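dumping this here so i dont lose it
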């Protein structure tokens, strides 16, 4: 059955086509025929943890209270570049081929080499007459050998960093539609504010042209080093990372070996994580303020009521849970569960959906909202039914989790080969300096897990490591994931979960959806 949202936009499309086909004299001179198809504005944060939303009152007022939140939204790979590629393509990472952030199995150079950019939500909507714009961070290590003025296909307007330290807030260079523009250390150069100003410019241009838009606003916050705007420095002085039940976990005897080998967090690491926690939250205050300016611009342009605003993150972030100092890349909920809030025409206000949704679902959802087709290679599925009615169930019963370690081009000498990489990827990452094209940190990083595949269901997290270790958590009874049941659970339950995982780990397109829809075993 076609949803109310879909029927409305189909009717709007008919009107738009009729206007386009009408004689030129039917519209006032110099005025573009209006296209009533909805706009889509994605606000993508970087490494945002669910708890970080508490410091964003404007987000709560403008989106959460006026839209629908998804409490079971997960990323398949909790790492920037693989997750972003999945969002743009609607595919699991094993199908995009973008497995990590850099070197031989990830990052922008691999995405470009594999042709990932040739078919994305940007190209699909551009082909349908949408004005498309990317503002902010793209794929890690963009632009590399493609050159600083390289413009990926599908984007009518492009504003993305190619040099400097945008994650540090200042001193960076943007590729602005093929023109290199340097930003310095002035207050007006603060990166979040610049990105939002450029987004306002983009949506205003679309309004002037009477054209629907798709905007991808990818801010740096709260990614390390999480430099706050000058007026927000020390806004959370004295606060510390939440001491959740799994913080600096005392008993790790049933955890996988890579966790068992971790010592309790030292006083130095705990202090680092507390500082990191404060800076991350401070860096979000500018974005929260800018949401007011952004929605005001949409309202002045007459676009707000016809725009889907989508707020999310590429991955979550842990800060001390399971003895892990700040970082991501695990299968624990701190890393894979991220916020997703959608406001827009026909979307229920102040509602929450518990449907099992994944980052591979974003691209097909945006396409369906725009009345566009998406390719058969897509693994994900639209969640427009949940936008109409948050109580609508989904057929999905499980969602695939994936993780790969970085593959060095020459592991014997650790030389980067054909890829210039300013950050040496090793199992335990040292403190590094961020770069416009890559992924770095001003703080020590937690260890990188061994390769794994896993499942997230409404009830369970199940993980199989390449080392032979397994994890199983009953997330309803044990939401902090303190008790690994893999060694004591009914072997029949483990066997059935393992078979579900085997059906998903190499799936493609419709086969993924069929495997996801298989019933989950009872405890």
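and the seq i came up w/
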């Amino acid at each position: 059955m076609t949803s109310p949202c879909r029927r409305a936009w189909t009717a709007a499309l008919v009107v738009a086509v009729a206007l386009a086909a009408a004689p030129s004299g039917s519209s006032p001179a110099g005025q573009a025929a209006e296209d009533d198809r909805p706009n889509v504005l994605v606000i993508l944060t970087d490494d945002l943890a669910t708890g970080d939303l508490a410091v964003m009152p404007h987000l709560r007022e403008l989106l959460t209270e006026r839209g629908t939140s998804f409490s079971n939204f997960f990323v398949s790979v909790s790492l920037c570049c693989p997750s972003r590629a999945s969002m743009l393509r609607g595919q699991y990472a094993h199908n995009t081929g973008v497995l990590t952030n850099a070197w031989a199995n990830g990052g922008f150079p691999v995405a470009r080499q594999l042709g990932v950019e040739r078919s994305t939500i940007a190209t699909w909507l551009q082909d349908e007459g949408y004005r498309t714009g990317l503002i902010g961070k793209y794929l890690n290590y963009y632009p590399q050998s493609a050159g600083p003025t390289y413009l990926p296909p599908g984007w009518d307007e492009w504003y993305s960093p190619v040099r400097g330290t945008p994650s540090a807030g200042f001193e960076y260079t943007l590729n602005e539609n093929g023109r290199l523009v340097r930003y310095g250390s002035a207050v007006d150069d603060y990166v979040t504010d610049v990105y939002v100003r450029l987004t306002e410019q983009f949506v205003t241009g679309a309004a002037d042209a009477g054209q629907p838009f798709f905007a991808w606003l990818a801010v740096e916050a709260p990614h390390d080093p999480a430099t706050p705007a000058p007026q927000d420095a020390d806004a959370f002085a004295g606060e510390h990372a939440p001491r959740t039940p799994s913080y600096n976990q005392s008993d790790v005897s049933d955890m996988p070996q890579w966790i068992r080998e971790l010592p309790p967090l030292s006083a130095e690491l705990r202090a680092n994580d507390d500082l990191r926690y404060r800076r991350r939250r401070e860096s979000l205050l500018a974005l929260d303020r800018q949401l007011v300016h952004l929605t005001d611009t949409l309202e002045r342009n007459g676009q707000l009521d016809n725009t889907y605003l989508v707020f999310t993150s590429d991955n979550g972030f842990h800060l001390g849970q399971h003895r892990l100092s700040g970082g991501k890349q695990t299968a624990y909920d701190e890393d894979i569960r991220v916020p997703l809030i959608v406001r827009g025409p026909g979307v229920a206000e102040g509602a929450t959906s518990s449907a099992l949704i994944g980052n591979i679902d974003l691209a097909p959802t945006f396409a369906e909202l725009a009345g566009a087709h998406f390719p058969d290679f897509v693994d994900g599925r639209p969640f427009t039914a949940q936008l109409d009615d948050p109580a609508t169930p989904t057929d999905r019963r499980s969602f695939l989790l994936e993780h790969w370690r970085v593959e060095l081009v020459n592991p014997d000498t650790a030389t980067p080969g054909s890829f210039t990489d300013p950050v040496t990827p090793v199992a335990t990452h040292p403190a590094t300096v961020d770069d416009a094209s890559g992924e770095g940190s001003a703080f020590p990083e937690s260890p990188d897990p061994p390769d794994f595949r896993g499942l997230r269901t409404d009830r369970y997290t199940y993980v199989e490591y390449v080392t032979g270790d397994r994890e199983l958590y009953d997330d309803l009874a044990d939401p902090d994931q303190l008790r690994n049941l893999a060694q004591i659970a009914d072997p029949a339950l483990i066997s059935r979960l393992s078979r579900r995982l085997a059906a998903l780990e190499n799936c493609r397109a419709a086969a993924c959806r069929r495997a996801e829809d298989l019933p989950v075993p009872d405890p």
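The two ends are 34 Å apart (CA to CA).
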